[in-house]
Amino acid sequence: MINGIINVYKEKGYTSHDVVAKLRGILKQKKIGHTGTLDPDAEGVLPVCLGSGTKLCDILTDKSKTYRAVLLLGTTTDTQDITGKVLAEKPVAAGKEEILHAIYSFQGPYAQIPPMYSALKIEGRRLYELAREGKEVPREARNVEIHSITVEELNMETKEAVIVVDCSKGTYIRTLCHDIGEKLLCGGCMKELTRIRSGEFELSKSLKLEEIEEKYREDVLSEHIIQVPDMFPDYTKVTVRKEFEKQLYNGNFLNIDQLEQKIPDLSDMTDKVRIYDGENNFIGIYKYCPDEGMIKPYKMFL
């Protein structure tokens, strides 16, 4: 079984679940999970966890992300992107400076109402299921943050803007496009979307499914698999003394005197350590509790 994380380039036409299903066939293993849904018409970076790496799915999903999107002004759709039913078309009266000001005004904290066409659940049902039945239900705004937003191109003839958005988890870029259009009183929707970064994973180092299959056949795919402990380069490495390995394997608390090394002073940002057994096998992440003189299991990767 392959363990670790692979940076997949999700192509248009595939759902994130399609990517996982195809990888199961290519790699001949079931234990695979993705780290953040991309719509079928979107493309770009999709980190996929393999084997014991699937325990990282929740951690990687929480990472910030960067997208390149094409905003089309003057058109409003039910899905907030170009694939949806057109609800309204209006002329774009705003000039270039006004459009730029509206786009940049969304930088910073932002209370965003999730779209009806999303996988969020309300009372046990996916919003998109309700939307397909012609139902619209109230949704509470969620706090997201646009860390930065850049306009790469603004075409006043086609009323399209190419924007690059660095944002927190849970941000819907098509909703951002919709909201920019609402602010300009002409409506707007998302025409194209590419995720160019997810956490530390970048577009330039991603592999398409056919490339992954080819490298797997050539037995060189391991060069592109990031090992689980490598996802925590800032965490201090510690080793459990041989006689206490059973406690480690059982996920028990450990006293610091049961370790081979003394743990240095750690900042609040890196209060966790990578823990290994005597054979240098990575076992998991433990949280250091200096006041109690012990470390406690945070995430096990046995």
Q: Which key features would you list for this structure?
A:
7 helices, 3 domains, Archaeosine Trna-guanine Transglycosylase, Chain: A, domain 4, five-stranded mixed β-sheet, Pseudouridine synthase, single chain, 302 residues, alpha+beta
What does this structure look like?
This protein has helices at residues 16-27, 57-61, 96-104, 127-132, 173-183, 209-217, 245-249; strands spanning 4-10, 32-34, 43-50, 65-73, 75-77, 86-89, 108-112, 121-122, 125-126, 142-155, 160-167, 188-198, 201-202, 236-239, 254-255, 272-276, 282-289, 294-300. The chain is of the alpha+beta class and 302 residues long. Strands 1, 2, 3, 4, 7, 10, 11, 12 and 13 form a 9-stranded mixed β-sheet that branches. A 5-stranded mixed β-sheet has the order 14-16-17-18-15. Helix 1 (16-27) runs parallel beside helix 6. The longest helix has 12 residues, at 16-27. It is elongated and about 75 Å long.
Number of domains: 3
Spell out the CATH superfamily of the largest domain: Pseudouridine synthase
Give the CATH topology of the largest domain. Answer: Pseudouridine synthase
Would you tell me the overall average pLDDT?
Answer: 92
Q: Structural class, please?
A: alpha+beta
Low-pLDDT windows of residues: none
Order of helices and strands: EHEEHEEEHEEEHEEHEEHEHEEEE
Strand content: 25-35%
EC number: 5.4.99.25
Domain tRNA pseudouridylate synthase B C-terminal: 174-224
Active site: 39 (nucleophile)
Protein name: tRNA pseudouridine synthase B
